[in-house]
Recover the amino acids of this structure.
């Protein structure tokens, strides 16, 4: 019987319990402030680029407006500036803060010189801080690790096995790559308390010394596995979530990089296997077809797993 390839697109499932698709935490924090002044550096590093640039531009304009108002308040203290003209004092402030000094306008009174000295100092500090923050944001090592959209439970060496794919999207090596897989599920104690429990899932191979191609991560569902005897319905009922943490050393950046992903019940498929994406070119080089990275095909009838199996007594 001819096999038919079937592309499994992401199902419309509820959002992940702990992780969003971008790896961010899907957790609402209550009872604690969202901002600490003593943690300003961390906030400025974690802001999105759009918010960071908007903050820099807004701060730059506000500071120059305040100094422009200060120059207006001291009276006629700037040579060649029109008396009481806000635009002249604003652009004079811009020249002073950037230490441009065109020479067309310059301070001529003591109070104006004092304001210029303060603004020049603040300008130097502001440029140094903005430059440092820009460099720090650019230098943060970020992983470009691709996770498959779905995981599958399929027989492998006569053993039900959980599988998913990982790939390095960059054309370089990730050294000492490691993956840690954890099962999160809701459990109710004998007293009736509902708690989220974390169970480590041992992998067939959790470490790769040189990671450049693809990696099929596998967890054998044997008698010692927390998933042993668990059905597809129980995965959904207990709000199970598979969390994976990827770490490695990027050889280009010489920095440790991290990536995280999760699968929920609607993204764990039974009796499917991933489409083979590795091949060789005519000159013998390895080729990876990322266009089929997320594709799976159904198993033949003789290899099917039941959607539920009972634990051995």
């Amino acid at each position: 019987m001819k096999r038919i390839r079937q592309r499994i697109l992401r199902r419309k499932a509820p959002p992940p319990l702990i992780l969003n698709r971008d790896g961010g935490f899907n957790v609402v924090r209550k009872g604690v402030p969202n901002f600490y002044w003593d943690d300003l550096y961390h906030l400025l590093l974690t802001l999105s680029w759009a918010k960071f640039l908007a903050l820099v531009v807004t701060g730059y304009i506000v500071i120059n407006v305040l100094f422009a108002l200060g120059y207006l308040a001291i009276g006629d203290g700037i040579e060649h500036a029109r008396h009481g003209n806000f635009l002249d004092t604003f652009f004079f402030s811009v020249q002073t803060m950037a230490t441009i000094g065109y020479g067309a306008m310059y301070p001529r009174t003591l109070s104006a010189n004092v304001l210029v000295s303060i603004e020049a100092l603040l300008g130097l500090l502001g440029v140094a801080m903005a430059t440092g923050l820009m460099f720090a944001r650019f230098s943060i090592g970020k992983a470009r690790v691709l996770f498959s959209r779905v995981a599958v439970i399929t027989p492998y060496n006569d053993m039900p096995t959980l599988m998913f794919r990982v790939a390095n999207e960059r054309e370089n090596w990730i050294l000492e790559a490691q993956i840690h897989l954890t099962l999160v599920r809701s459990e109710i104690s004998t007293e009736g308390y509902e708690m989220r429990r974390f169970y480590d899932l041992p992998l067939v191979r959790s470490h790769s010394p040189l990671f450049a191609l693809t990696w099929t991560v596998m967890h054998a569902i044997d008698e010692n596995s927390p998933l042993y005897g668990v059905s597809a319905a129980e995965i959904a009922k207990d709000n199970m979530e598979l969390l994976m943490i990827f770490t490695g050393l990027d050889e280009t950046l010489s920095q440790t990089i991290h990536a995280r992903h999760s699968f929920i019940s609607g993204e764990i498929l039974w009796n499917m296997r991933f489409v083979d994406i590795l091949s060789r070119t005519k000159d013998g080089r390895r080729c990876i077809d990322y266009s089929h990275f997320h594709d799976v095909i159904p198993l033949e009838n003789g290899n099917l797993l039941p959607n539920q199996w009972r634990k051995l007594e």
